[in-house]
């Protein structure tokens, strides 16, 4: 599943820890354990239900179950994937214990003893299995495709009154809402449920994927039944291939027990030889060699003839040191594909179940349980389609919202129990309670910064921009509005108005965008604004970080200027991961500080204190492997974790229509993250820029300085806001996260769940003599003019180290400046703070 959406979903559920519901106590209680008739081991995820009622439960990781029922039927129905279903008679008693044994549809063979030199024979089997990864890894096929069904459920649970304790405020609120009987027979409040049916395609050369969502339905608190949800809950984000070196869950990389680091990180034990689905398999248990490693433990079934993966049950528990997570469990079944090579048939996962169970961050807080179920049917392999077929990588069928109960009955691989069907009704009731409606609005506000106005199609925000105080404007008040999809699915309107009590100026802005096409995605727009900006910290540099932009308006503004900006643009996707933007822009520069420059090309010095530019810009963004998702008139990029993102921009300045300069400007940025094995993950960014023209310094490149106490990953944290200007530069920004490798091995510190990381930033560049000569020491009136510092032959360097995940949200970095330490007001050491809620 896509990790950013999963993180959003878990964040939504985190908000829901403050509200919820519980069922009244029921008179009948049934408990027991579901076990394998052959091995005696507990069977997880087994479905237990009272016949003729909606009362039911699922067994936990050890096979234990509990359920409460308002009335009793004549029998207890038990079923589990891979086992024959059974029915047990019920007694008319208030409390009863029924232990259940299920017989696998695959039969157990007689005991087979295997002897080998050098330790457990499992290592010899695993070594052969890993060496044959290329034979079974689906990505080694020229192509494959299948029909996918994905079901997602999320619950608030474990909030009912505990023995000897009052339920507390949270539990009390939850106990007043609709609920179902959940795990262990206790009440659970479902807060999200979805079903998605789609067609999924993969091609290896060139590497491309495509998913077409045929039908989708979803209900949730704070998450609407829209196209965005349909895309995020489909097959594209349910790809777990254990032949890869790492499995990415919750934005963390866990080494696969069948990956290249299998012998370094895991210990293996041959347990038995069984027949699974008619195939004789080795049953091998695995566990991390060190409890401190963030790795799986569980069981893998490898067939004895071809030594390929047939089934895996992999778990991650508290030892992995993941925030807010008690356990993660992935259960996956692989099958040979009918119609493929009869000698060496292809094998793909046909069923995947993922369970994420949260811990309790504070006493008396409820838990969160998220379940995913995905299946693949009608699989075909080695039938690649033309490359252009795979674009866009994710699309919605025109009638994806139009579905009926009969449709879902037909496409579901397994029939849902009455309790599972009832989840949809209960979620709808829960999200329409007043408390949950309020929570949904709070989620929208804090995740996007805007507050919807019901019934208007308008939103107010970002609210953090509403007030600021600085030395130029005094008290700054601002009101912003924008439209949403309720207003139009094609037109996007926005605007703001602001006023400063000290400068007594009215600032304003508006924008109009039109979604001209969705296949391919094409947007045209016009924007106009008149506002106060700062050199080195304009809205162009801030981008979408509205929090950073809001805080920049406080305090002393460095080299502020008033700017009138008009821009028209066209943005279009030219191919998968390939986006082109063409824009024309008119800007004015009215400095609010002592500024002047010599007009270039004049024999006698001619000074000017402001200027106008007319600019044509071409921006190309290339992100191979990126998936674009769209929600009506919004578009979001989900970059690939193993492919770089490259952005190239060219600006052409023209002295037409009162423009003052002709110029050329080039810039290139590359962002990428790489996994360094057990050492963790490195993120790096390379920036290059060149201006061959002669221009005043505000039009040159200004590195992002960051004098605030907050950490910036894209800026230089010990550089002042306008400390340097360059017309050619090269920068490298690196952050490496050890992801618990160090602190997990320090007794006592491990329990704190701290994460250690290091950072490094280097910038080289300079300014030509022609550009440096444009800035005089004094103007024509003899007034002192503020100049600028240029990077010389020495690079700017800062190094840092820090601790993240303090109290699960706080990060502290210690930064050292290694060069340009003797400049006036140079800040050579600093502590920077930042916050991030993550796993």
From TrEMBL:
<dbReference type="Pfam" id="PF13715">
    <property type="entry name" value="CarbopepD_reg_2"/>
</dbReference>
<keyword id="KW-0732">Signal</keyword>
<feature type="signal peptide">
    <location>
        <begin position="1"/>
        <end position="24"/>
    </location>
</feature>
<dbReference type="InterPro" id="IPR008969">
    <property type="entry name" value="CarboxyPept-like_regulatory"/>
</dbReference>
<dbReference type="Pfam" id="PF18939">
    <property type="entry name" value="DUF5686"/>
</dbReference>
<protein>
    <submittedName>
        <fullName>Membrane protein</fullName>
    </submittedName>
</protein>
<dbReference type="InterPro" id="IPR043741">
    <property type="entry name" value="DUF5686"/>
</dbReference>
């Amino acid at each position: 599943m896509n990790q950013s959406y999963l993180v959003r979903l878990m964040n939504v559920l985190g908000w829901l820890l403050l509200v919820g519901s519980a069922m009244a106590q029921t008179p009948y209680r049934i408990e027991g354990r579901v076990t394998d008739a052959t091995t005696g081991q507990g069977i997880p995820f087994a479905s237990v239900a009272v016949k003729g009622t909606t009362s039911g439960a699922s067994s936990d990781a050890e096979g234990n179950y509990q359920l409460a029922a308002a009335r009793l039927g004549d029998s207890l129905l038990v079923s589990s994937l891979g086992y024959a279903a059974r029915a047990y008679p019920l007694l008319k008693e208030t409390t009863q214990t029924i232990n259940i044994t299920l017989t696998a549809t695959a039969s157990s063979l007689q005991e087979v003893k295997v002897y080998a030199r050098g330790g457990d024979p499992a290592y010899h089997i695993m070594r052969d299995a890993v060496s044959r990864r290329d034979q079974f890894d689906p990505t080694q096929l020229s192509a494959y495709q299948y029909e996918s069904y994905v079901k997602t459920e999320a619950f608030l649970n474990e909030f009912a009154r505990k023995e000897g304790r009052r339920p507390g405020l949270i539990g009390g609120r939850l106990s007043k809402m609709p609920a179902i009987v959940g795990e262990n027979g206790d009440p659970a409040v479902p807060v999200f449920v979805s079903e998605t049916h789609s067609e999924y395609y993969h091609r290896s050369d060139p590497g491309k994927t495509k998913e077409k969502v045929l039908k989708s339905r979803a209900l949730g608190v704070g998450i609407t039944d829209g196209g965005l949800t349909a895309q995020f809950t489909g097959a594209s984000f349910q790809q777990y291939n254990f032949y890869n070196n790492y499995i990415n869950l919750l934005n963390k990389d866990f080494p696969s027990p069948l990956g290249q680091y299998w012998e370094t990180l895991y210990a293996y034990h041959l347990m038995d030889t069984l027949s699974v689905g008619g195939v004789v398999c080795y049953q091998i248990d695995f566990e991390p060699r060190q409890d401190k490693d963030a790795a799986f433990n569980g069981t893998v079934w490898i067939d004895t003839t071809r030594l390929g993966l047939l089934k895996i049950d992999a778990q991650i528990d508290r030892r992995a040191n993941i925030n807010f997570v008690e356990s993660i469990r992935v259960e996956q079944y692989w099958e040979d594909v009918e119609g493929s090579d009869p000698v060496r048939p292809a094998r793909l996962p046909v069923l995947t179940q993922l369970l994420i169970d949260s811990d309790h961050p504070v006493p008396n807080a409820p838990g969160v349980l998220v379940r995913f179920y995905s299946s693949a049917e009608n699989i075909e392999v080695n039938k690649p389609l033309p490359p252009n077929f795979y674009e866009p990588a994710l699309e919605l069928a025109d009638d994806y919202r139009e579905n009926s109960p009969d449709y879902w009955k037909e496409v579901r691989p397994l029939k849902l129990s009455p309790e599972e069907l009832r989840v949809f009704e209960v979620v709808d009731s829960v999200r329409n309670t007043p408390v949950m409606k309020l929570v949904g609005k709070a989620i929208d506000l804090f995740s996007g910064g805007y507050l919807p106005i019901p019934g208007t199609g308008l939103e107010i925000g970002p609210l953090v921009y509403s007030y600021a105080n600085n030395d130029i404007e005094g008290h700054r008040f601002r009101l912003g509005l924008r439209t949403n999809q309720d207003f139009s699915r094609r037109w996007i309107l926005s605007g703001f108005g602001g006023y400063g009590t000290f400068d007594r100026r009215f600032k304003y802005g508006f924008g109009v965008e039109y979604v001209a096409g969705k296949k391919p995605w094409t947007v045209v727009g016009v924007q106009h604004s008149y506002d106060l900006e700062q050199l080195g910290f304009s809205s162009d540099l801030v981008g979408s970080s509205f929090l950073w932009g809001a805080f920049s308006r406080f305090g002393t503004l460095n080299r502020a200027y008033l700017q009138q900006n008009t821009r028209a643009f066209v943005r279009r996707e030219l191919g998968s991961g390939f986006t082109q933007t063409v824009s024309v822009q008119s800007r004015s520069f009215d400095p609010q500080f002592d500024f002047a420059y010599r007009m270039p090309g004049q024999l006698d010095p001619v000074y000017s204190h402001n200027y106008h530019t007319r600019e044509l810009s071409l921006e190309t963004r290339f992100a191979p492997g990126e998936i674009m998702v769209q929600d009506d008139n919004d578009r979001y990029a989900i970059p690939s974790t193993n492919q770089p993102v490259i952005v190239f921009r060219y600006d052409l300045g023209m002295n037409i229509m009162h423009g003052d300069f002709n110029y050329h400007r080039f810039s290139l940025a590359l962002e990428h993250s790489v996994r360094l094995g057990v050492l963790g993950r490195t993120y790096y960014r390379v920036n290059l820029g060149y201006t061959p023209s002669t221009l005043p310094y505000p039009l040159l490149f200004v590195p992002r300085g960051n004098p605030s106490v907050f950490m910036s990953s894209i800026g230089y944290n010990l550089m002042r806001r306008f400390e340097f200007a360059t017309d050619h530069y090269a920068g490298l920004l690196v952050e490496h996260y050890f992801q618990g490798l160090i602190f997990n091995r320090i007794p006592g510190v491990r329990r704190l769940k701290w994460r250690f990381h290091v950072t490094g930033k280097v910038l080289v560049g300079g300014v030509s003599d022609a550009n440096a000569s444009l800035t005089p020491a004094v103007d024509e009136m003899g007034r002192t003019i503020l100049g600028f510092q240029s990077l010389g032959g020495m690079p700017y360097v800062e190094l840092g180290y820090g601790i993240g995940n303090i109290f699960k949200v706080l990060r502290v970095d210690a930064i050292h400046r290694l060069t340009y330490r003797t400049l006036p007001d140079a800040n050579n050491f600093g502590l920077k703070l930042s916050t991030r809620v993550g796993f």
